[in-house]
């Protein structure tokens, strides 16, 4: 699989006891995707406590983040059959110091019109194996509580709840706790290997 190849994923989504089938295009994000990606993130920022931004974030900041990280930390997007970007999942550095190099944080956001269709799961089904193939050892997900849907999603991939930071976010007139979930991709008994770039990990 090459970095720019397009995968068509048949996604079974479950909604109120019946199954729908959606044809998604899931691929690596490109610079042109950052505008609709940001629109989804900004909607979450303005309408939910899942995103701790309290005002719309700028396109310039998100472009800078994508340019700085996407070579080693993959960003994925999901497009519907009409080519509309409806969700994204991304990885990012956990901390800046070098000993953290084998740990990545992950997050996923879905357009509100597409919630409950299994799109987040489809994105993680691509993102998590990609990060493992790059050589990452541990994945971290932070979830503003309560968020049962996000908790179920992460736990379905084997993430374990490892702690809670209490009263760390003030939004919508109240304090919010943040829980942290961890997924071990490799055993701790052996030294880590070199982290591959996204391009290296997705080459045939």
Any overview of this molecule?
The chain has 204 residues and is α+β, with helices and mostly antiparallel strands. It has one domain (7-201): Aminopeptidase, CATH 3.40.630. The chain has helices spanning 34-47, 59-69, 119-134, 148-156, 198-201; strands at 7-15, 18-28, 75-79, 85-93, 103-110, 138-145, 160-171, 174-184. An 8-stranded mixed beta sheet has the order 1-2-3-4-5-6-8-7, sandwiched between helices. It is globular, with a radius of gyration of 17 Å.
Q: Any idea what the CATH superfamily is called?
A: Gcn5-related N-acetyltransferase (GNAT)
The class by helix and strand makeup works out as alpha+beta
Which CATH architecture would you pick?
Answer: 3-Layer(aba) Sandwich
Which shape, going by the Cα principal axes? Answer: globular
Give the terminus-to-terminus CA distance.
Answer: 5 Å
Give the SSE order as H and E letters. EEHHEEEHEHEEH
Tell me roughly what share of residues is in helical segments.
25-40%
Global mean pLDDT: 89
How many independent structural domains?
Answer: 1
Number of strands: 8
**CATH-defined topology:** Aminopeptidase
How would you characterize the largest beta sheet? 8 strands, mixed
Strand order of the largest sheet: 1-2-3-4-5-6-8-7
Question: Over the alpha carbons, how many angstroms does the gyration radius reach?
Answer: 17 Å
Poorly predicted sequence stretches spanning 5 or more consecutive residues: 1-21
Helical segment count: 5
Quickly name the level 1 CATH class: Alpha Beta
Q: What percent of residues are in strands?
A: 35-45%
